Amino acid sequence: MLDFELLLVVLTAVSGVIWVxxxxxxxxxxxxxxxxxxxxxxxxxxxxxxxxLVIRSFVVEPxxxxxxxxxxxxxxxxxxxxxxxxxxxxxPVTHQLxxxxxxxxxxxxAVFRYPVEPSQDYIKRIVGMPGDTIGYVNKRxxxxxxxxxxxxxxxxxxxADFTEFRxxxxxxxxxxxxxxxxxxRDFSFTVPEDHYFVMGDNRDRSxxxxxxxxxxxxxxxxxxxxxxxxxxxxxNWSRMGDVxx
Length: 245
What we know:
Elements (H helix, E strand, L loop, with lengths): L3 H23 L10 H22 L1 E5 L13 E6 L5 E2 L6 E3 L9 E5 L7 E8 L4 E5 L2 E4 L2 E2 L2 E7 L2 E11 L2 E8 L7 E4 L4 E5 L9 H4 L2 E2 L3 E11 L15
Helix pairs in contact: 1-2
């Protein structure tokens, strides 16, 4: 699988070397001397690639939603923006923390590197903080012995086999789904230090911490906050511009 982040760093380094070389050589050649196409390309691309690398690594990064595990909050084909500085600034490729700016909050929709295969990016909702005991009983989330407040919304308009409900995590409410024909998988789990328990909003159609464990803090990429495009066989204008809650 192509590591786009690594490719971007390599292109920035190569074009940067060419740019520095050209600046140095410019002092020792005639003003009308021709330069090779490679040098011309490198010095032209370097500022652009550098800006893209800085924005993508430290400010905001686009992602495309590949599946329905976060329905009804996010649909397959949604293109979202992820804040990279919400959980602290990290160097590209090495993911070394260089500025601990902020902390994840319960209820955040977070993009992270999949613990089983870190080259893959996953997106889920943070439901468990370090030290929490997370339970799931009769398809109801329980945190530290207290059931999470919910409000039923009845059958989901897109598929009556699903029941839609509102759930409160932290200070905010979000919508989620359960499937009427799926079996209940009750469990209880205590979240280790520097880890987070994540679940998909489509509770019976999500591979999440219930199956492969919590997410280490250093695997968090950023907080999803905005849908800038939604395209699944065509544009979905009603979703474009939505704030992710």
